[in-house]
Amino acid sequence: MKIGVIGGGAAGFFSAISAKESNPDATVIILEKSSKYLSKVKVSGGGRCNVTNACFDTKKLSGHYPRGEHFLRKAFAVFDAQSTMNWFTEKGVKLKTYPDGCVFPLSNSSQSIIDCFLWECRERGVELKSGFSVNKITVLSQGFEVWNGSENSYFDKLIVTTGGQPKRSGLNWLEELGLEVIEPVPSLFTFNMPENPVRDLMGNVTEETTVRIEGSKLSGKGPLLITHWGMSGPAVLQLSAWGARELHEKQYHFAILVNWLHEKKEEDVRSILDKEKSLFPDRKMVNQKPFDFTNRLWSFLLSKAGVPEQLTWKELSGKTLNRLVNILINDRYEVRGKTTFKEEFVTAGGVSLNEVDVRTMQAKKIPGLHFAGELLDIDGITGGFNFQAAWTTGFIAGRSAATIQE
Fold this sequence. Notes:
Elements: E1 2-6, H1 10-22, E2 27-32, H2 39-47, E3 52-53, H3 58-62, H4 69-76, H5 81-90, E4 95-97, E5 102-105, H6 111-124, E6 127-130, E7 136-139, E8 144-147, E9 152-155, E10 157-160, H7 172-175, E11 181-187, E12 189-192, E13 205-213, E14 219-226, E15 230-232, H8 234-242, H9 244-249, E16 253-259, H10 266-279, H11 295-304, H12 318-329, E17 331-336, E18 338-340, E19 346-351, E20 356-357, E21 362-363, E22 369-371, H13 385-403
Parallel strand pairs: 1-2, 1-10, 2-6, 10-22
Antiparallel strand pairs: 3-5, 4-5, 7-8, 8-9, 11-19, 12-15, 12-18, 13-14, 13-16, 14-15, 16-17, 20-21
Helix pairs in contact: 1-6, 1-13, 10-12
């Protein structure tokens, strides 16, 4: 049996190794269009590679995927986060789980993951072929012909793991096979706020916030980071993932409402401010902050609420108090554009999950053609979830391609 894996990224390598583990006698070849393998793994997590998330309940785990939740719930029954951790540990990669559930190599280097994959491929005899850009697949009566413009190759089975595509045109060659494709749009991006004075607070992190899209039920929770172009951090990235399609339709022009106090309600905030007023009447508000903010952020929010720098707590009028309460829990910012999060490009869209049998990752219409990774219409929020989807779909696709006889 000859198996071709198109794409030398995370899902491609995992698929190839899974196929070889399932059928050591099979010929498995990874076809990669560039000169480098695993380039996204290399830069992910700031070069540390967040391999998975220590969420061991498959229902909860699948709830971290804006697209693919129900599909993945079934797939995780076969290979879940614990399976991933066991797999890497058995291969000699020591892992560390952090308080937020994120799992990284103990080395804190993505190179540990890359070295593991390359070692496994060498040991098992997986062939690597770089500089091979597939632009056409022909389905034969037995197997497939793969063409890159200058040469062709024949395979009994194919696993396509070419990752998220920035444009629909990158999926044309799959549409030509009669497969339904969902329009790709960006997911996991940060918010640009041109000329907004909040950018002067770049580097400021508020650990617990809630960010909502104005006029929408969409929200993100967690740390918020102010950058030199706008806002980032888990709350924003989460929001961008769940709102990927809606924000694309808005052409990335929309407004957000920030609750700097996470989920505190108006009455709670008023109570805290009234207590501060009674305890420290003669102190300047700018010097006596009742919340766990940086001094810069507290000063910025006071200024935005129209509170003079010299104002003491006892001088805080009802009208100014109302403005401050609103700023603290309903702070509005205009967003005009987006920026890709670091170098981690993630898309919503790809091959429709309606086309794929979750038990095998095989195209329902084309026996022997399998898919894995972000090429599928699957994407997760930050925290190791996108890699977990790659490992799971790759494991199933590789095992199925190597063992299923059509």
